[in-house]
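hiii, so i know i said id send this last week but things got crazy w the move. better late than never?? heres the sequnce for the chain we talked about at the cafe, plus the structure i predicted for it. fair warning i was half asleep when i ran it
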Amino acid sequence: MTASHRKLGLAVAQMGPVNLADDRASVVNRLIEMMREAHSRKSDFVVFPELALTTFFPRYWMSMEDAEQRYFEAAMPNSAVQPLFDEARKLGIGFYLGYAELTPDGQRFNASILVDKSARIIGKYRKIHLPGHDDHKPDAPFQHLEKKYFNVGNETFGVWNVEQTKMGMCLCNDRRWPETWRVMSLQSAEVVVLGYNTPSQNIHWPEPVHLRMHHHLITLQASAYQNCVWAAAAAKCGYEDGHHMIGGSVIVAPTGEIVAQASTEDDEVITFNADLDLAAVFRKNVFDFARHRRPEHYQLIVDRVGPGEPLER
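okay and structure toks below
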């Protein structure tokens, strides 16, 4: 990388369905194959989806003990996932991976990690904006039980130095909240990576199907532009045992433009050679936070969780 034109070969590895019958070994083999493809296209870093190692299990009601045994990782890496780390070290490529984390003291998180090209975990994030519900809804076509199976993340959004790039991460529903992006942008993030599992059907209200993809894309585009970052988002998608999730894995530039987008609902790798200095151009000429932000007028954002009465003037 030169000082004037720093480039990051960025890959997004979308995954097709992971069904209940699929074991960890077969899933990890799929991730390895896509990592190899990303490397063959000269990528430096590859983004895998949220809960990449299993089916999207929060759609099912089960005991906590059963969920922990079947779907959570008590260590990372572990014997099942170690081959992915070994391949990353062999190829010299970094990656982001989402999975269900079980801590030594029994806490459960929807987590993601940043791994550098030497296969060293350098950052971990635990999902903050958990969607769905924690009660059983027997009349719903499926459940969305992230609030049942996961604790709310216990640390704010972070930014880490990955391959000379300031990189932040989040997960799925986090992408819809402007605070997510702004906290990372205020830490000088240049790239934000994330994975998601987004059902095509909203069980809480009759949302038109086309809006699921529209809101996904417009959120990423607006957030990348307003925060002067590259955004790379990886879906797990298609029909998992009959339950459909949207695809639409993308790489978005700080201009808000989509520069690469998946065209299938299967395992698919998209890549782009991201000019990191493009973010600096927008920070200087469009969103110069230091010159133009007025946080003294934003206090209501942290004082209130939900809407309230207008402020007295």
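btw The mean pLDDT is 96. thought thatd interest u
miss u guys!!
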